[in-house]
Design brief:
Blueprint lengths: L1 H41 L1 H43 L6 H40 L7 H20 L4 H25 L3 H34 L1 H15 L2 H42 L5 H11 L6 H16 L1 H26 L8 H15 L1 H28 L19 E4 L7 E4 H39 L1
Antiparallel strand pairs: 1-2
Helix pairs in contact: 1-14, 2-3, 2-6, 7-8, 8-9, 8-11, 8-13, 9-10, 10-11, 12-13
Length: 476
């Protein structure tokens, strides 16, 4: 028995040693993180160059992940529909599910390629006719010189007048002409080689983008086929790193963020397609030019929240203005009515509460994330901000409940102070109840003690099991 007690004491000492070793490892990583942060601030340019190189090498993979994430809702829709039909008559459910996934992926890719080809089939001839013209209509090549001549005649009439505005306009015209001539002589001709280099770099960048898209499609196929495996690996890592209670919270929050992103992006894509079709029908009824081209521009830019209608509407109105100023006015009125219909009726019905942000936070997300990450930031900033808002809201409400305060925002509108001697205890199954502060603190203390005891049992569960096995061996 003395040997058994000695072994038990040694195990307890080893447990304390492991505890202190864990504290030492945590302290080491904290110090290393602080040193790394200081190094990043001191060598910020080198660090950004390193990140640019890493992201450049990972760009095909990133494109593949983004494409897989965007195509996943449509693939899941077809997969669920096929599963209802095929799995009913299948002998092996596992093989039937694999067949359904492969067929759903093929259908999704075929629809994607067919839709993209159809848009190009409509857009390329329309764009060619817009620029070059047709047998019955003039193109921009014919319209712009005529419009510029009309503008020049009007401007000459203004310059030849005797008013003060004519003298001011003449002076501004002369200064502008001199500046443009000096710029062409001093800058353009002297930097011709640089301009050629920029053009070549742009052409090479286009080839790089095409390469990233092609390789990204291949990655997206593999990701969509093995999405369940990737999700299982992610959950496995989370549960291996955190305790069960915290890991459950992480998985639940990640699932909610996934629903917000999927709902917002899918809903916005469907909403943009509907807006593009309605824009084409409206322009056809109003007999406006460049119907296909402008409808595609409006549909694509409508994906961007808040700024999308302006980004697509302004160049489209200018394009129609070159053809007919009166029809440009009709288009502006029509696009304003269409966007009001989209913002007030269509988007809330399709997207619903998947975003859950006020207009202020939508504008904030578009401006900040757009300035930081460009067009991808404007596209993904709103659902990203919705996830950040949701996480902060849950943390705040959880801490308020732990302190016995009301989590609803309306409770704090006209609140000047909180009574220090009374607490509002929040129970999801009951109405808020006021108790004294001492009673509430005693309740929290008991809950914390029970929580710590459960965590200690989880930590020492394996050691206690080993100790029982040791006692059995000693008794034998």
């Amino acid at each position: 028995m003395e040997d058994g007690d000695k072994i038990i004491r040694e195990r307890r000492i080893n447990g304390q040693t492991k505890k202190y070793a864990h504290i030492g490892v945590v302290a080491f990583f904290v110090i290393a993180a602080a040193v790394l942060l200081v190094f990043i601030f001191l060598r910020f340019d080198e660090f950004t160059d390193f990140l640019s190189g890493v992201f450049g090498a990972m760009s095909p993979v990133i494109v593949g992940i983004v494409m897989a994430y965007l195509l996943n809702p449509f693939m899941s829709f077809f997969e669920n529909g096929l599963s209802r039909v095929i799995c009913k008559h299948a002998r092996k459910i596992t093989r039937a599910k694999k067949v359904c996934r492969i067929l759903a992926l093929i259908i999704t890719m075929v629809i994607l390629v067919a839709g993209f080809s159809f848009v190009l089939y409509l857009l390329v001839p329309e764009l060619t006719d817009t620029v070059m013209g047709t047998d019955t209509e003039e193109g921009l090549i014919d319209i712009l010189p005529a419009q510029s001549e009309n503008l020049k005649e009007w401007f000459n009439g203004v310059l030849n007048g005797d008013s003060k505005f004519s003298y001011w306009a003449k002076d501004a015209f002369e200064k502008g002409t001199t500046y443009i001539e000096d710029f062409i002589n001093d800058k353009v001709f002297n930097y011709t080689s640089d301009i050629v280099g920029y053009v070549a770099s742009g052409v090479w960048s286009v080839f790089g983008i095409v390469y990233d898209i092609i390789i990204g499609i291949v990655f997206s196929v593999y990701i969509l086929l093995a999405k369940d495996t990737f999700g299982a690996h992610a959950k496995k890592i989370v549960y291996s790193l955190f305790k069960r209670r915290r890991a459950n919270v992480i998985v639940r929050v990640a699932r909610q963020c996934h629903y917000k992103f999927t709902g917002a992006i899918t809903g916005k894509i469907v909403d943009s397609i509907i807006i593009g079709v309605m824009c084409f029908i409206g322009m056809f009824i109003l007999d406006l030019p460049y119907r296909v081209l402008i409808s595609v521009i409006v549909a694509v830019t409508n994906v961007i929240p808040f700024f999308g209608p302006y980004i697509g509407g302004i160049p489209s109105a200018f394009l129609i203005l070159c053809f007919d100023p009166l029809k440009a006015l009709y288009f502006v009125i029509f696009i304003i009515v269409l966007q009001q219909f989209d913002c007030n009726l269509l988007t809330p019905h399709i997207v619903g509460d998947s975003i859950g942000l006020s207009p202020f936070w939508v504008l904030f997300a578009c401006v900040v994330f757009g300035a930081m990450f460009g067009l991808p930031g404007m596209l993904l900033g709103v659902p990203g901000m919705a996830c950040i808002y949701m996480i902060i809201k849950e943390i705040v409400e959880y801490r308020l409940k732990r302190k016995g305060l009301h989590p609803e925002t309306g409770y704090y509108y006209n609140l000047d102070s909180v009574d220090e001697h009374e607490m509002v205890v929040i129970d999801p199954n009951e109405e808020p109840v006021k108790v004294y502060k001492d009673d509430y603190e005693e309740r929290i203390r008991r809950e914390n003690e029970s929580l710590y005891n459960e965590e200690d049992q989880d930590i020492s569960g394996s050691d206690s099991g080993n100790e029982e096995e040791t006692d059995k061996e000693i008794k034998k």
